[in-house]
From TrEMBL:
Its EC number is 2.1.1.192. This is Probable dual-specificity RNA methyltransferase RlmN. Its cofactor is [4Fe-4S] cluster. One of its GO terms (molecular function) is rRNA binding. It comes from Maioricimonas rarisocia. [4Fe-4S] cluster binds at residues 111, 115, 118. Binds 1 [4Fe-4S] cluster. The cluster is coordinated with 3 cysteines and an exchangeable S-adenosyl-L-methionine. Pfam families: Radical_SAM (PF04055), RlmN_N (PF21016). Reaction proceeds by a ping-pong mechanism involving intermediate methylation of a conserved cysteine residue.
Amino acid sequence: MLRPVTDLSRAELAAWCEEHGQQPYRADQIRRWIFGKRVDAFEEMHDIPAALRTALAEEFRLFASTVVRHQVSRDGTEKLLLALHDGEHLECVLMREDDRRTVCISTQVGCAMGCVFCASGLEGVTRNLSMGEILDQVLRLDRVLGPDERITNVVVMGMGEPLANLKNLLPTLKTLNEKGAFGLGARRVTVSTVGLPDRMAELAKEKPAYNLAVSLHAPNDELRTQIVPVNKSIGLEAILQAADEYFDKTGRRVTYEYVLLAETNDRTEHARELASLLQKRNAHINVIPMNPVAPLDHHAPAMPRTQQFVETLRGLGVNVTVRKRKGADIDAACGQLRLRHEQSDDLVTLET
C-alpha cells in the first residue's frame, strides 16, 4: 500500500523532490494543489512536470482514506465515515454556523479513555492515526464544501485522545498553520484533552500556541472518575494545575467542556461546586447537552434543568455558554457512525 503524501512534512517533500532531480520549490507547488486547490489526483497538478507527477503517483497516494458514508443533516452538518488502508474506520464532521465552517477531526481509531457518554471508546483504542490520516480528514471535508466556502476553524475533538497521539498531532497542527498548506491561524485551532498533565505541558511549549479545551465533566474526583475512568490515575488537582500553567505560558484562556448527563452531573450543587473550582480562573465553561447514543444509558437533562445549571454558573460569575446541538439526525455524536458500521455489514464504499 502506497504511503499518503500528506505523511510528509514540507521539508520531507522538498527533499523528495530534490532526490527526483527537481528544485525544492516544487514541494510548495504540490502542497498548494493539495491544500489550496482541492485536486483529487496528482495528474490534475498541471504546473508540475509530467515526470514528477508520475513519480508522485508511483510512490504516494493523494488521500489516506476512502469515503464509506457521507451523511448530511437538516442543519447543514455533514459527517464522513472513512476507511483506512488496514480496514479500520474513523469519523470527521463539518459544522456550519453563520460564516464559520468548523471541522472536527479524530486522532485515534477508537479511544482508551472510557468516558461513559461517548461511543468512541466502547470498543477501546486500536491505534494512533498518522499525520497523513489526521490531515486527510480536513482534505476530505474541504472537498465537500461549496466553491465559495472555506474551512475557518479546526477542532481536534473527534475519536481518540489527541494528546495521547502528540507525536503525530504536533506536525499536523504545524501543517494546518503553515501558509503553504491550510494557513489557519493558531487561534482558529482548538485541541481537546481529557486532561493529561505532562502532555498539556508539552503542548504549551509549542509556538504558535493553540487553543486548549479540557474535558472536565464533573466538579470533583469521585464523580469524575465515574464518568471519566482514567481520572482515577490523574486527579482534578493535577489537571487544573496543568491548565493554569498552559494559560500562564501561552496567554490562551482554557475552555472547560462539561457534558450534562441527566441525574448524574447536572444538579445545582454540581454547578456550585464547579463554579468554586473555576470562578477565580481565567476560564470558560462550554456546557454540552449529551447527544443520545443508542448503546448507552445516559441522556441529556430536560431544557429547564440545563438552563438552571447554566444560570447557577453565571450567577456565580463564571463565563459559560451552551453548545448548540449539531447533526442529531445523522449520528453526529463522536463515534456513533463508526460504531454502527462496526456492528453491521450493510455499508459500502461510495468513492475511492
